[in-house]
Amino acid sequence: ELSDRMILDWAERSGVWRSRGYGPGTRASRDKPEMNFGVRELDDDSIRKALQMVAPLQQRHYVVMEVRSNLLADDRKSLLSRFNHPMFKKLAHVVVGEPPLEYKKLVQAKLLQQRQEQSDRRFELQKLEKQRKRQLEKTRKKREREKLRAEREAKKKAAEAAKKAAEEAEAAKKAAGELQNGEEKEEQEGDEAKPEEAKEEAEEAKEEAK
Fold first, then answer.
1. Do 19 and 37 meet the contact criterion of CB atoms below 8 Å apart?
2. Which of 1, 6, 2, 72 has the alpha carbon at shortest distance from 33?
3. Which one of 4, 38, 105, 175 is most buried, counting C-beta atoms within 10 A?
4. pTM tops 0.90, yes or no
């Protein structure tokens, strides 16, 4: 089979990593699925072009499963032109009508599986989102508590600093008052001592005069 779908199957069997994986629901289109390998040669259709060039050189049976391209005249002519060697016999099969019951059951089972997986993924994402929101809320409340604690500590320190400054100012004022009172007392004692000294000097002068 020559198709993008088969390239994906080959890559999966070869163990090539794909960003979206290979499980059900990872392909937006079964006819032209996106590659998403992260490998330039696979993502830019180089592999598909190489296969299209090499395939006509091999005498083998090929099935070209290109739904859209096979239904477009220009694309169909371009594809057939590659196999223009006489060894190739070209056959076209168009399948139209009601599919068999077994095929219907198979498709329905796969669709049900895809929906279940999508539902499980949504549930897990919602669960993770709730956990993330709870963690964010917990972190926010913790930061608010730390902020309030820091504000209380700052207010407490400011009040203690103001109280200490007031006590120091009161102590300085008291000390200044005591110093001033001491100086006034010394001046008063000095004034009281002067009349006594004068009296003594007068008596000494009187005795000398005798």
1. yes
2. 6
3. 4
4. no
The label of the residue with tokens 């005795």 reads: 207
Q: Is 51 exposed, middle or buried (0-12, 13-18, 19+ CB in 10 A)?
A: middle
Q: How confident is the model at residue 202 (pLDDT cuts 50, 70, 90)?
A: low
Three-state DSSP string of 12-38: HHCCCCCCCCCCCCCCCCCCCCCCCCC
Rounded-to-integer distance, Cα 159 and Cα 161, Å: 5
Helix (H, G, I), strand (E, B) or coil at 152: helix
Q: What is the pLDDT of residue 64?
A: 81
* pLDDT band with cut points at 50, 70 and 90 for residue 112: very high
Residues in the chain, how many?
210
The two tokens of residue 115 are 């929906």
* Residue showing tokens 């999966």: 12
Q: How far is CA 203 from the centre of its chain?
A: 106
Q: Which two tokens stand for residue 84?
A: 């223009």
9-35: pLDDT as tens digits: 888 888 888 877 777 667 777 777 778
